[in-house]
Design goal:
- Two copies of one chain form a homodimer.
- Chain A is an alpha+beta fold and 259 residues long.
- Chain A has two domains: 64 residues, Arc Repressor Mutant, subunit A (Orthogonal Bundle); 169 residues, 2-Layer Sandwich (Beta-Lactamase).
- Chain A has nine helices and eight strands.
- In chain A, helix 1 packs across helix 3, helix 5 runs antiparallel to helix 9 and helix 6 crosses helix 8.
- The longest helix of chain A has 21 residues.
- The termini of chain A are far apart.
- At the A-B interface, helix 1, helix 3, helix 4 and strand 3 of A face helix 1, helix 3, helix 4 and strand 3 of B.
- Chain A binds a DNA duplex (30 and 30 nucleotides) through helix 3.
Chain lengths: 259, 259
DNA sequence: AGTATCGGTTCATTATTTGAACCATTGGTT
DNA sequence: AACCAATGGTTCAAATAATGAACCGATACT
């Protein structure tokens, strides 16, 4: 691992639950030498990727990432395009919708929309890591990812998030086959209890899966009829999003399913 | 300059006008050795900061920056807070508004809002570099920045963007004094001809200037009365934004100006 | 007074980065 | 078809930068 990768890997320790990290904590988290962490953080700070909080001297993400994200969006406007699609989809279904993107081997939630229709909603955060086997989005991605990638995920230990999480690799492979048939993944309470979510894959220009579009609703609200409606709406929205970002579904993706 | 800074400095060559860069171009732009650039870009790619376009092999910003930006916003929600302020301000003034933030020694536009009131509007891009001496935002920042910083900017060569750009450091110092008095900066056609813009500084938690909030309008539309209205609205909006992001104006900032 | 944190610093040792030169391909010119 | 000038990518000895154990001063708690 080069020095640059090491420095950038430090950025991965910042999450919603841990937005600021002190030098000693970061040293422990990363397992690197304190002097090394200190110097790397200094360089990240010079470049604006990191800044130090005013009170204590703990580190947090800096303003430079905003500039880069704005440029990325200008070049590849996935998020801005997705916002419209998410909004329309949440209005159509009356439920919370969200988009997640594959970043390296990690699936991250990146954008979401709520519907005002119901008082109870599934709440979402952006930049959260999604479980592959526990979420509909994760299953949708696995079903259409390269087989080696899916196998790597499935052969690693699969944590049990709730009582309903499916953790048997064999059972999941069966699920994935069904998803490949229908084009829509489903998960009931696999990550958070009482959350019923549906998801479809989103494809990039080379017809490879780049993420997933999902609808998440309180489980008690979802009848079979509603599930079918959501699935149909998702398939349409997924195809729209894939097309608008200049992507293309692979030939084997069930294009005409559910009118 | 450490290896990490070198790698990150490569990211700075990506702009709106140049969203994709090939290896050879990047080598020329950066002045580094080709092998060095190649290896650094490889590391940035592994971390998801860079990805390679499908067709040719040129580089562009990767999806990882989106995740970091979402986390930064969760920790320090300047952009999301500013969007409301910008929207209200553009509705109130009927003109285009934008927020720019100081990143290192560079001032970048990062968020904007349009008003539907007029058919002709000043158009904005996010993640564009703003001139200090040619824009109202730049002047607002200079007026309230550390004196050494302002002097560094003013003693460097000041490019003439339009026929109306003020490029004499002495004249600019006089302007800055006036801005410190009124709290509002103004520039007519200093960066783009026919654009009349007003701007106020935005302050961080340590009462240091972190950016500027601006209103930009076609010069022909701005009468003295309208300029006064815009200035008043800007002062109010600037104070709101500074407060909402947990910032504080310095004691010498004209707080009560224009009720 | 003692001790266990914390952020930050030092400097000889070590390992990584560097760059000139080299390949293989592609696309345009003669 | 031969040539030239690009491109992205690769090699390896030499130069440089990264590393880590130990140390410092400050703060807070026992």
């Amino acid at each position: 691992m080069g020095t640059v990768s090491k420095a950038l890997s430090l950025l991965a320790y910042f999450t919603h639950g841990r937005p600021e990290i002190g030098l000693s904590d970061l040293t422990r988290l990363s397992g690197m030498n304190k002097a090394t962490v200190y110097r790397l953080m200094g360089e990240l700070q010079e470049s604006g990727f990191i800044e130090q909080a005013d009170g204590d001297r703990s580190y947090r993400l800096g303003p430079e990432v905003l500039r880069l994200a704005a440029l990325r969006e200008a070049a590849v406007p996935i998020l801005s395009v997705s916002r419209r699609v998410l909004k329309d989809l949440s209005e159509e279904t009356g439920e919370t919708t969200h988009l997640s993107l594959l970043q390296g081997s990690q699936l991250n939630s990146l954008s979401h929309a709520y519907s005002p229709r119901h008082a109870t909603r599934v709440m979402m955060d952006d930049a959260e890591v999604l479980s592959y086997h526990g979420t509909a989005s994760g299953l949708a991605v696995l079903a259409f990812a390269e087989p080696e990638f899916s196998e790597t995920i499935l052969t690693a230990p699969l944590p049990r998030h709730t009582a309903d999480t499916v953790t048997d690799p064999g059972a999941i492979r069966t699920l994935l086959d069904a998803i490949r048939q229908s084009g829509v993944a489903q998960s009931v309470g696999g990550f958070e209890a009482e959350v019923h979510s549906h998801a479809v894959p989103v494809f990039g220009p080379d017809a490879r899966v780049i993420g997933a579009l999902a609808v998440a609703a309180p489980a008690s609200r979802i009848s079979d009829a509603q599930a079918a409606e959501i699935a149909a709406a998702l398939l349409r929205a997924g195809q729209t999003l894939t097309r608008r970002i200049g992507g293309a579904a692979p030939a084997h993706y069930p294009q005409q399913a559910a009118a």
